Amino acid sequence: MTPAEVPVEARGGGSGRRVAPRQNYATLAGVGGAHRTAEEAAAAAAVTVARLAVEKAKADRDAFIAKAGPLTAEQFEAYGRAAVQPGFEYFAKLFVAADGEMWGLKMAYYAATVFDALKLCDMIVASSSLRIDRLVHFNFPEFTPAFLADLKAEVPQVLAHAKKPFDWTGVPGAAEYDAALARKNKLKQTKAAAAAAAAASSSSSVVAAPVIPEVSERTEEEFFDWKQDPVERARRLWEWWVPRVDELRFWAKALRLVAWCSPRARKWSGSSRSSSSSLGRSACPGWRKGTRRAR
User: Fold this and answer.
1) Alpha-carbon gap, residue 164 to 158, rounded angstroms
2) Tens digits of per-residue pLDDT, 141-193?
3) Nearest of 107, 103, 105, 114 to residue 254 by alpha carbon
4) What angle in degrees, to the nearest 10, is found between the helix axes of 145-153 and 125-133?
């Protein structure tokens, strides 16, 4: 082979060194939008959001220092405590003090957890009995000391049921709900990835800076599991109770009364279905005719 036949990219310099072929490093790095995958675009957008958030935090810090002046660690802690103390005091006045306006509501909410089979399985007789005592805060005339004593007498039976394995996915309507929720979450992930990709520049290596809202507002409840959805959770819990109440006379009555305190029970009672069980389904929180779809 003559020198003229040697490829240009293989020719060395005067030292006789071999020269590697030139590479388009911009292409290898995926700088151009055409070479970006959706995952790369999403990652780039996330990095940009994080960088902007850090810059905003630094700007807020500088503005605070300019307003309040340099502070020592002790002074900064005292400043923070003074800022949040009114909120703590307001909460304590309403919910913690025995004469607080919302203390009874808090106790009633605590008492209602005794009907949650998902929590019952971890309870003992003492903890469940303590919750039963708090049922008086519902102010039902039926919740007399004698009635509460009858509830406590049935606690061992209830706990025995709660500790048995139960297939929550086998509850009527559960499969439809889970499938709808999975589709919804997948759609949200797809939209998020598409939005992140759109935020990345398709013709420049500079990613377009996403706009960070001043206040993050939650416009819709987000659930990734049926246990996080209070309506669906209540519906499945109700179905758990239906075949068990015939042997739990006092718990069946207490459950009906407590369930009716739920705003959802009153909202959906007009379209409820009848049941052959002595418990019935008309009081079920979140029960509607047909299968309730994941929101």
Assistant:
1) 10
2) 999 999 999 999 999 999 999 999 999 999 999 999 999 999 988 888 888 77
3) 114
4) 160
Q: What pLDDT, in 10s, does the model give residues 190-223?
A: 887 777 777 665 544 444 445 444 544 545 567 8
Contact 240, 144 (CB under 8 A): no
pTM over 0.70: no
Class of residue 128 by CB neighbours under 10 A (exposed 0-12, middle 13-18, buried 19+): buried
Tokens 């003090």 belong to residue: 97
C-alpha to C-alpha distance for 218 and 199, rounded to whole angstroms: 21
Buried b (16+ CB within 10 A) or exposed e, 26-57: eeeeebeeeebeeeebbebbeebbeeeeeeee
